[in-house]
DNA sequence: CTAAGGATGATAAAACGA
DNA sequence: TCGTTTTATCATCCTTAG
């Protein structure tokens, strides 16, 4: 019964409620949408769709149900700027089921056929940027279609001229900035796009079916949710479609004109110049918007110093805050991820976790290594206390034996973030040779290079001219784990680094958990999602909070083994249940677990960050990324726990 | 297992303009 | 001089190919 009243519906309802109040504070009008169209189009991520994305697409389909599916899909691609004939032909050839195939074929066709077709695509591209079609056609004719940069510059000049002139003077040629204003007004007024009840009534359990639906519409799930993200939760389907089409057209244009900037500039300046073009538009847009909004509500500003609500031995502690009603426990929850995530990610995380403000903390205030992380939790924040004794707080305290080898020009006192990989032997060898070539003080250039590499790879000095990456047990110590926590039992060295690099910093987390000690003298029941090597468990244990029942969900076998062997070595008296797959933790399973020991006191999770971190060069796809989308499983499970626990409580009462 | 491999966003510093 | 814009610097729970 409880399961059918599940999270996607709740979330959609919540968002509609939020915004029907007339407050636009969750909206993102003020940020670089145009730029982001570009970014998202290029990265083309795949992953889970947010529930709201599904819901809106679902409603759109219902709304256009008068059309046959075939004509709908044709309309869709025509809307993207392809000719109707071409689309019809391709749909007939490829079948209407696989829109990816269709899109590919269309792009191929238009690239290989007449220049006029690419011409129209180019025009669409600029129209998509907000210029009027007439102006674009004219400018493209003037400049030739080969040079998109000069087209863009000319367009910007023209539109700037027209902005200063009166709009009435030239009704035919359209006006870039007034187009913008018009579309913005439209955006603000168009809030009645779908009815709330429609969403509430729609079935939510058939998630896979919905994914199929949205992809049938021709959008990837990621595109749909990104569009939702960017356009706001209750924007019209037209806005969403526009957004996605713009992204796809941008992608298509990039595919058609990949080389044109290469002769006179490298890749990065190519990007800069394009951004410059977009920037002008954005500035105009921003100026207008700044009259409406005082601040950019969407931007999550990271505190400096990054001490969250406070850290030991620092002033500026905040000891009380007001949590939103929906966020209050039980259970307490604690969610963690990298602080420097792509734009908008923390806004989304916060929105999905009952609008709780994230607490950003750098673990350099707790140990000798930096670790900038955001934590969303509903724990009390007064009377926190740290784990004692304090771990070493500087590099020299942590590695006293290396002190004699440390050159005077390496002034680091803290290490950088501990990552999952270490420097290659070749690099440390290169550094040694570079230093040996110069006797005495090395030249500044060499110093700079060496320092750069030391910072990048967290190298420490272990001999004359000799730097080395940290050993796994040193990483364990810095992170606050017991020595040899990850050692042995069949785990490779590489895996140790990986598991440790993905873990909590114990002292930081323990400081936040310390408020639980008084509240649960008899011990707590813990649900630990993506538990890794058991950072939450170790932190609670070191605080002296007994662990009664722990349910740990972790995909990697090596990590489960580490947690279990720690559990046995520390003579825990509670029970440890480990679950491999987060999908296994459905309503039934949770209901059963909760019935067994009367509910969870704390739900902890740090979902994978590999699609969020800047270290990832290949798939920094944001929350929609394959792994980081598991965040939505955290939300799903937390919501289920809340529902079930409130349900059982009311039954008991 | 090893090595090679940029991109992004925040922040600080510098240049610019009135 | 101050406020704004441009440029430089820095840090980053990593993936892929071999």
From TrEMBL:
Belongs to the class I-like SAM-binding methyltransferase superfamily. C5-methyltransferase family. It holds the Pfam family DNA_methylase. It comes from the Eukaryota. One of its GO terms (molecular function) is DNA binding. It comes from Gossypium mustelinum. The keyword Cell inner membrane does not apply. The active site is at residue 609. Keywords: DNA-binding, Methyltransferase, Nucleus, Repeat, S-adenosyl-L-methionine, Transferase. This is DNA (cytosine-5-)-methyltransferase. The keyword Methyltransferase applies. Residues 68-109, 117-158 form the UBA domain. GO terms for biological process: methylation. InterPro entries: C5-Methyltransferase, C5_MeTfrase, SAM-dependent_MTases_sf, SAM_MeTfrase_DRM, UBA. Its EC number is 2.1.1.37. GO terms for cellular component: nucleus.
